[in-house]
Batch of 3 targets.
Target 1
Amino acid sequence: MTKTINKTTKILLAVAFMFVAIMGTASKIYAADTYKGTIVTSTTWTTLAESTTGFNRNVTVFNSSTGTDGLGILRADIRMLGKNGNVVWSETKACPGYGTREFWCGSDVYKIQIRVAYASGTAYAYPS
């Protein structure tokens, strides 16, 4: 009976170790990044996410703006700021209204911001 318990224990430990090893490589934790959660969009720039070390990864933005721009649901402007607050990249109407878009944020990007031309809504960002 002792051999059965030891063998079973070894098998269970091996399976648990494999599970931890697989899950550990599958999930990424970016301690230097702060995602603000759902924010209210407006005509002024609002920060969606910040990094203390530079993102250097893809970040997805979800924009849920209210109102239309005559061509459909209001699209949002996105800009990325460097370490000293300088604009590294920006695009007008970069993110679809009530939709998502994935952006590459290089190691020189420390802040991601959003704004809409008028009206308001909500938005959030997450690592992708």
Note: The first strand starts at residue 33 and ends at 35.
Target 2
Amino acid sequence: MGFLGANPNLSNVNVQVNLPENLKLLQFTHIVRDASKERRWSLPSAGSPVTVPGGYYFMEVNNTSLQNVTITINSSSMTLFPGQKFSSEDRLDWEHFKQELGPPVQILNNTGEAIAIHVCYPSDSAVNPYTI
């Protein structure tokens, strides 16, 4: 079988890249993927709020039921249709060259239909997602 556009026997290829001297690169201060800082769970019960502590770099609330689900996130009510999700993630502040992590979020399942929550924290975070 042949290869299209490349020689499969190439090895030890070196590449040199010259970057401009005044180029400002965003320095990440957090390692953002660690299995012990990531959790997925289902929130089936109605009327009991869950508080997700701040400092996450990714949080997602997903309607896994076949019914419309009304949730309250930080005192703001919204309806998620079947398969719809609400997500929040970190932002890169290019003006100040820093990474802004997510704020605390309180989630209230108003209807009792199952919703899935997925949250990820940086490995240097003090938050244990399994205690949420």
Note: The chain is about 0% helix and 35% strand.
Target 3
Amino acid sequence: MWGYAIAKMVGWMFIPMIMFERLSWLFDGWLRFFFGFLIYGVMARANLVLVAIVLKAFFNLPSFSVPPGQAYFFEVRHLSDSFGLLSFLLIGVLALISTGQFASSIAGGVGGIGSAVRGLAFGLTGVGKVLPK
């Protein structure tokens, strides 16, 4: 959320850059930066939901709502129970760490939108059109 807020705050400086051909790469970079944080937020939440579903299945819980005053006790019968829980948690942490790389690779293809937006802006404003004689 912090990176998304920063991208929104500095975005107003980069939006006018699409009007200049030589500076459009700045807008494209900001657009990748902005979409990267949007995609990261969605993917991180999806990853956390998957970890929560796995933990729910591991503990055989009926739901995530526990009545007040009741606690869940994890009884360790075998050593494999503890290793299974630790492996689930380790996979969840490693997947959350790699979410940033996934989001940046997905957002890397977003930069082509800048040229489409620039063409649309020029078309709406009439900049660059040759007037008939």
Note: The two ends are 53 Å apart (CA to CA).
